[in-house]
Amino acid sequence: LSGFSVFRFKESLFCSVEIMYLCGIFVFLSCTICLLFLNCLFRSARIVYILLYCYYFLLGILLLVFLFVSRLLS
């Protein structure tokens, strides 16, 4: 019975990780479109480059977290 509950917990955790992946892809696409639009509006603005660097830094951290969680589940 305890092995079954651990399996159910892992299964529910895997479903929530899949939902996090889908949300992450949606946020990634919307932020990319928004930043490209800002880049077209303010071509020489330094704030757009700062936003891009912060965005890719946060994206790298999220990718590392997702890889760590998926290794824990496997």
Unreliable segments of 5+ consecutive residues: none
Number of domains: 1
In sequence order, what are the helices and strands, one letter per element? HH
Strand content: under 5%
- Distance linking N and C termini: 21 Å
Let me know the largest β-sheet.
none
| Inertia-based shape | elongated
Share of helix, binned? over 70%
Mean pLDDT: 73
Please tell me how large the radius of gyration is.
Answer: 18 Å
**Total DSSP helices:** 2
Indicate the structural class: mainly alpha
The count of β-strands is 0
Task: Describe what this molecule looks like in 3D.
- The chain is an all-alpha fold.
- The protein has one domain.
- The chain is 92% helix and 0% strand.
- It has 2 helices and no strands.
- It has helices at residues 2-41, 46-73.
- It is elongated and about 50 Å long.
- The model has no long low-confidence stretch (mean pLDDT 73).
- Keywords: Membrane, Transmembrane, Transmembrane helix.
- The chain crosses the membrane at residues 19-38, 50-69.
Concise account of the structure shown:
With 74 residues, this protein is mainly α. 92% of the residues lie in helices and 0% in strands. The chain has one domain.
